[in-house]
Amino acid sequence: MDFQTAKQQDETYLIHSYSRFPVLLTKGKGAAVQDDTGKAYIDFTSGIGVNALGFCDDGWIAAVTNQLNTLQHTSNLYYTEPCIRAAKLLCEKSGMQKVFFGNSGAEANEGVIKAARKYSFLKYGEGRSKILALVNSFHGRTMATLSATGQDVYHNYFFPFVDGFVFANANDTADTLAKMTEDVCAVMLETVQGEGGVVPLDRAYVQAVAAACKQKDILLIVDEVQTGIGRTGTFFSYEQFGIQPDLVSCAKGLGGGLPIGAVLFGEKTETVFGAGDHGSTFGGNPVVCAGAVHILETIDDAFLAEVQKKGAYLRGRIEAMPHVQSVAGLGMMLGIQLDVDAKPVIHTLLEAGLLVLSAKTKIRLLPPLTISQDELDKGLSILENTLQAL
Prior knowledge:
By secondary structure, this protein is of the alpha/beta class. The protein has helices spanning 3-13, 46-49, 58-68, 81-94, 105-124, 143-147, 173-178, 203-216, 286-298, 301-319, 342-352, 373-388; strands spanning 25-29, 32-35, 40-43, 98-102, 130-134, 165-168, 184-189, 192-193, 199-200, 219-223, 247-250, 261-265, 324-330, 333-338, 354-355, 357-359, 362-365.
């Protein structure tokens, strides 16, 4: 299929809830990908943070293929080894106690919302069900996760939204603490607001909120859908903030290209859900979990040290480029603020052979965590040459 055929059939048969770039991608390896004409691109997007090990990692393919040839699905009515192994690795790497598997980041965030409200109901009864989220946050596109998202642009058309969410200003300790009232059961935050423009929270602010949560028995939820699984240079980003959450959501990089989401439960919450309280037909699928096991086993301390090194290299190179006002983020999750409109620059970069993302007014970079130095330098050269030509 060539691009024009693909575009025509896409317009005929698919709902247009995505604004696609004008390129038909056909095959990739590592951080390199080709379109239908054979044109090569360096990928600084990882499929929005999903392809943690890049395109077609050999070990990941072997793990998935072996499981696909063994047992592809059973449902959660039976035990399967990949599901158990993936959960064990997640707990060991996070310091959390239990795991629930679903299929996406939004589904994981639905899970943490339900768990927080049930915890509070069991302990305090009705009337303590509000969840305090942050202005500029993004937690998903289901009805509940849209309602938890602190951006007005998403609060339209789909009325009525789910009740029980209030919002505080990110990095405003006084405002956040003031809104942790007696009817609040949880605070939900991203340590780096990804879709909000790659905006990191202040460490002192996060620690103050965590301390207040502990004092008031308000659960601390950290949304690690985009920041988790090594993306920021630690396995979960909250490790860099000196806190231990009560609930964590993750997805994206955990699957390496197959759909997965997970809720991680801490000591306070590990017994909240009983049989029938939550479920997923496809959650814990053995093929998906086999791939996740490979990713979790790959991301060790040496791997994370390389992510930190690559992230620092990216930031240093980019900060010296023309038209760059600032670079924000952690590890290999970076947002570039230019002194010109980023949108046409993103399209020029595509034409030049570099795939990047946007986040509000910024260029957002989420390269594969395994990207080689050669691929990094090729992508950075395209970025620098493009900015120099403006």
